[in-house]
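Most newcomers find our protein records easier to grasp once they have seen one. To make this concrete, we reproduce a full record directly below:

===
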Amino acid sequence: MTLTATLLVTNTYFVGSPSQATVKIQDSDEPTNAVVANLNVPVGIDYHFPSNSLIVAINNPTVTSATNATRIAQIDNPTGAGRKLEGVLTLPNDVAKYGPWAGKIVIGGEAAGLVYTVDTNGTVTPYNLRMTVPEDVRLIPSGQNLYCLDVTGNQALKIPSNYFTGFAGDVLLVDEGTGAAVPSLFIVHWDGGQFVVRQIVTGTSSLEHVVFAPINIPALP
């Protein structure tokens, strides 16, 4: 299937923080979501290579873990309280491919509606990509299906790999879509001078975390 895209006529260019010109494109071809599992409040998902299967975490506030952690950066709001962060990805140090994000950690700022990068010195830089609830961030591989968690619908869904043809190596951001916001996927591409952001509306009731995997789980009957 070929994705068709049209430029939003309301605001073709918009500037985030820092001032990096960004083009936003809305894809008109909504994916066909295949439900592959019914779950109880799923919030985390990853691909388990040894078993060639998916691992899903459900929302259980009583689960805890004890370990040692090193604080890399503190991201504060104007009142000094820590922001709610969701999703994390470290990008290769390839300036031609990722521009100002090269070699940095990319994080979704769910409460602020921003995307943050953190460099090796712990310097935090916010970017406004016109997302509402940034939930997850992934690197797009070649030829793999995307599995998404719809926490409101208690389902795991599959978006076929052909929706991401031509975007291998680009960054995928997930907008949870709460309230009036529409659950969406954002493909972020650096064209050498600006970020080009493509929005794909998923048609789900909400989105939590997602994962690409080289498996093809059939839809439920």
